[in-house]
Amino acid sequence: MPKKAATESVADAAAAPGGVAAVDRALSLVAAFRPGDAALGLADLAERTRLYKSTVLRLLASLEHARWIQRLDDGRYALGPEIARMHARYASAFSLEHVVVPVLRDLVAATGESAAYHVRQGDARLCLYRVDSPSPIRDFIKAGDLLPLNRGTGGRVLTAYDPVLGQADGPDRELYARIRADGYFAAVGDRLAEVAGITVPVLRDDGTICAAVTLTAPAHRYKADNLKAVQAAAARLRGLVG
Questions:
Q1: Domains of the chain (ranges, CATH numbers)
Q2: Contact 131, 232 (CB under 8 A)
Q3: Element (H, E) at 71
């Protein structure tokens, strides 16, 4: 018989009546990730779930196979792309869409360029909503796409306002400090050489970031004056989302 844990696991302490214990435990691993956690090691996951490491490894194998968890090169674990996909599907039916998308449409109408709403997703950013430019010459990001945090104006802003990543030592620390001071980031070619972007954070009422509004355009159509329209869009969303 398997050895009984000296301390009851998080999942067993709040088990679903009539449910499956293994499912409860697997979900407790997913729930172990907290805001600001880009990745967690085996010891961290075992400590937070109060499960044996051997049990954690078996559950992680199934979660990784289903793409709910991904194993990184350094041996740590991060949330997987299936969570982002499901989040996008959930969000598409959630009332948040009715708040955000009209603002993006107005931004596109005012500028003629593509507008997107990005949120942090583990060690990446998720394009949660997107309204395309009417021009046939544009970038082709779509809702549900995962993009890097360390490239592109959307990723830079989400990183700059993150209480951990934005303050970390590194070659971009001064850039992130400037982004916070300016309250936006505009650049040409930060992710793709031929694409320009302007991003403004969407803040909660307490001043913390919950998302970012990004306007993208081909580099040759970049207009610095479009910053005002992006700032107005982010201001409309402040306190309404997140």
A1: 12-86 (1.10.10.10), 94-237 (3.30.450.40)
A2: no
A3: strand 69-71
Distance between CA atoms of residues 121 and 235, nearest Å: 22
- Look at residues 33, 38, 50 and name the one whose alpha carbon lies nearest to residue 165: 38
Q: 240 has which bridge partners?
A: none
Decide: residue 180, CB within 10 A, 0-12 exposed, 13-18 middle, 19+ buried. middle
- Give Cα 200 to chain centroid, integer Å: 15
pLDDT digits (tens, 9 = 90+) for 203-221: 988 889 999 999 999 999 9
Q: What is the pLDDT of residues 4-47, one digit of tens each?
A: 455 788 888 888 888 999 999 999 999 999 888 999 999 999 99
Place of tokens 């998720």: 126
Burial class (CB in 10 A: 0-12, 13-18, 19+), 205: exposed
Report the 10 Å Cβ neighbour count for 66. Answer: 11
pTM: 0.62
Residues 157, 227: Cα–Cα separation, whole Å: 14
Across the range 178-196, mean pLDDT stands at 95
- The sign of the dihedral angle between the CA atoms of 65, 24, 49, 5 is negative
In this prediction, residue 1 has a pLDDT band, given cuts at 50, 70 and 90, of very low
H helices present in the chain, as ranges:
10-13, 21-31, 42-49, 53-65, 81-93, 96-111, 153-160, 173-182, 227-237
Beta bridge partners of 197: 187, 216
CB-based contact 176:149 (threshold 8 Å): no
Structure tokens at 102: 């009209």
